[in-house]
Amino acid sequence: MISPFAFVTATEILFGRGQAKNSVKRVADLGRRILLVMDVMPRAANG
Amino acid sequence: MADQGCAVTSFSVPIEPDLALVEQGVAIARAAGVQVVVALGGGAVIDAGKAIAALVPATQGAIAHLEVVGQGLPLDHPPLPFVAIPTTAGTGAEVTRNAVIAVPEHRRKVSLRDARMLPVLAIVDPALTDGAPRDVTLASGLDAITQVIEPYVCTRANPLTDTLCRDAIPRGLAALTRLMQAEDTDARDDMAWVSLCGGLALANSGLGAVHGLAGPLGGLTGAAHGAICGVLLPHVLVANRDKVSDPVLAERLDQVGRWIGTAFGQSEASVVQAAGLLADWSQAAGLPALTALGIDRAAQRVAAQAAASSSSMKANPASLDANDLMKLMEAAG
Fold this sequence. Notes:
The complex is a heterodimer.
Chain A: E1 12-15, H1 19-22, H2 24-28, E2 33-38
Chain B: E1 7-12, H1 19-32, E2 36-41, H2 43-55, E3 82-86, E4 98-103, E5 108-113, E6 121-124, H3 134-153, H4 159-179, H5 185-204, H6 209-221, H7 225-243, H8 247-263, H9 271-285, H10 297-308, H11 322-331
Parallel strand pairs in B: 2-3, 3-6
Antiparallel strand pairs in B: 4-5
Helix pairs in contact in B: 1-2, 3-4, 3-5, 3-7, 4-5, 4-8, 6-7, 6-10, 7-9, 7-11, 8-9, 10-11
């Protein structure tokens, strides 16, 4: 018997090389005024 | 982003986020009238961004919503849309609904948690982890592996998290050992996948004694979360196998032992043998002992008491009291 359970996660997951670079418009569509949170010396988003 | 007509305000997170840093980010976001928060970085950056997105619309201060040290009140307004883009393979925070925040005056790390804090978009691009420093790769990688092992052997595992963990545990062990030998694109891809699976699994089943201890130890000492998890994992596996009474969970622990043994050429290893192999390999790869991370016996005693009643411990496969936890930390150096 399988016990009842729930599973929740992010609304959308994009996985794979190149997804960061290809998702700029997708992010922009969420809002035009963006807070970009990053570390002090962010690694280049060159994927 | 500017090419898309966006106005971008930057906010740096140089350390694991504490309450003051999060409140500073909230103030900056409100002043800029931001509509969406994007976090690009490791687990600390993603937790900070997630907390800021949650608190910008809130009418009460952050402390009111924090677990343990605050009132743990639910958010009174939905968070801003939040996008998580991890640049390390470790925490899986891109798919979880909590943010871990340090509260220095309480010497604790606690969660801001709300079901609505799940990101609207998680972008897991393994290329962003290419060339990460060896020590970061090791510590974050061991955190990721811990986060697929603990949900698999915990009391709240379910068929979906099991499916993820059964694939991710051996895959992660193989990938991390390859990455400690040389840079490897396929191994980076695998570790990004394992980290994602860890976030999905922990958010939907549970964790265990490693994370039950890592929270208080990190809050008390500031030691890096991934390194703490990596050091503790072998010793928690041994303690759990010794104390577990549920035969199903005992077999799961034995299976984890065989997966670890296989990664080090001993496919029939017992949990004790496998834990020894993992501890020896981690040390040889450069992982410090617990005391070398700045975690002395006094901190261990405080953490053992705090962890015994932590939420992570509730799903641990065996009942471990503060004395058991103290013994395993002593074994971890």
